[in-house]
Amino acid sequence: MKFKQLTALLLLFSFFISCKETTETKITIKQDLLIDLNKLNSEIENFQHIVTSNSSQKDILEQFKKSRLAYKKTEWAIEYFVPETARFMNGPALDEMELEENRSFEPHGFQVIEELIFPEYSTESKEELLREIKIFKANIKQLKTTFEAITLSDDYVLDAVEQNVYRIIALGITGFDSPILQSSISEAGQSIVSISNSLEIINSESKTLVHIKELAEKAKKYCEENNHFNSFNRAYFITQFLNPISENVRKFQLEEKIKDVKKTSPLKQSAQTLFDKDAFDVNGFILSNDYKLTNDKIVLGERLFYDKALSKNNDRSCATCHNPEKAFTDGLKTNVSLTGSNLSRNTPTLTYASLQNAQFWDMRQLDLEKQSVDVIQNKDEMHGSMDDIHAKILLDNDYIVLFKKAFSKTTKPEAWQIQNAIASYVRSLNAFDSRFDLYMRGDLNVLTPQEINGMNLFMGKAKCATCHFTPLFNGTVPPSYSKTEHEVIGTPQDPAGKKLSPDLGRYLFNQMAQLKGAFKTPTVRNAAVTAPYMHNGVFKTLEEVVSFYNKGGGKGLGLEVENQTLPFDALNLTPNEEKDLVAFMKTLTDKKYQ
């Protein structure tokens, strides 16, 4: 009896010790983060003092870099837990727009400061610079209040760490958040170390963590020894360090039995790396669970996609303009109307169209369901009627069978189901089996040295990946993938570049000055087989596209584009570098189109 009582007491004591350790772990993570925020605040105060005392540009730049490095230690938590504040600490130096309310907010933070102090700093900017620093300090204060109030449980911490690995790959080493100073490489090393430090607090005895720490230290050392932005080997860095770290973070999670955070996201939590074949979930972009992708919906949607009965005169289907032999484009400069006249826009590929938060060049529809209705009912494209199509389907026994199979709860086909079925077929068109994909999954012999150099240019000197984010290569911003971006690049009306395209893009639907000439950033995947390019099909070849960007877009050509978001300074790519860049883009072609 005494033995049983003693055993019970020991078990109870062990339980309290376990609870105490868990509580202390969570507090320690919070404490460490708050300490790092205090260090960041100290660096910002030093920055404020240096600017106030009219120090040299060299001193100002050095302190700015120290401040950014201090931020990178906290970035994993700020970006994940307080993204709204993060946007105004290290977001793009572009207005943040709320289109629904037709208003915009001026940008703040490091990227705005960067433009004030580099490449030239004038004391005339001192007042504005001090204002930005004051706003930054206020944001730090808000962050400290937030993190003191919330619980940082292990599952959320680990999810934040995983997303930070992906952030380094897609944003960190591309110069996305340091576009002018290009201090991204040394900062990436700091961000990687913060990953292992955060996991160490969860379980410092883990053998997997020891391996992560070794990889993180090697990665940091590689960044320190190869910190030149343009020559940094991103292909090597990702395959040898970041992907293995990502795999081991997932392994650590499984060993520690840390549950996945329940959330709807385009990026699957089961993914071991950002480049897994099934890393992305198209259901992350759907309206509700009723719209989830299934094989039966794909079968039904494919039949509807090729059915000419969807058009008014039964002479045009979705496939008429989205030819599967051309990666679901039409190969024309611009689309052709039902009467044979040329329309104003180029037909974009439907491959990977499901992995974005907006459809059409002008982003006027948010999902594929509305996109299909827009095209079907457009008088120049199909001139169909959803009511008429619905009526036809209700009289077609074959279709009724397919609809009942695809939508098990339905007794007869409904109009929304027609849209969802077509959208489901489009959602099935993502292969992720290009030579680039194989390379990133470990087949390091599948790309040539020229193509690898092209990848490094794409993600570095050429700045392509600051808009076409790896690995989707479209404008859907990682790692949350909750927003798809547009750009104003100053597309010319003709290849000679003497006149700006008159198409106002997003401005036609949201009349804000920043949106004049703004168009969705499309995917570069399958670009080699989806010519011609741009919203108006102005360029016939990838070589022409690269040349346009190399010159600085429309503004670089001398066109008047006041609101151009693309940097208008020349990239200074050599002829060989331009060829390498094109060679890399050709590696993004899916296997079936090679």
Automatic annotation (TrEMBL):
Keyword Transferase: no
Top-level taxon of origin: Bacteria
Residue ranges crossing the lipid bilayer per the database entry: none
InterPro entries, per the entry: Cyt_c-like_dom, Cyt_c-like_dom_sf, Cytochrome_c_Peroxidase/MauG, Di-haem_cyt_c_peroxidsae, Imelysin_sf
Compartments where found: Cell envelope
Ranges for domain Cytochrome c: 296-430, 449-589
Keyword terms, alphabetized: Heme, Iron, Metal-binding, Oxidoreductase, Peroxidase, Signal
GO molecular function: peroxidase activity
SUPFAM superfamilies in the cross-refs: Cytochrome c
Signal peptide: 1-19
Name listed for the protein in its UniProt record: Cytochrome-c peroxidase
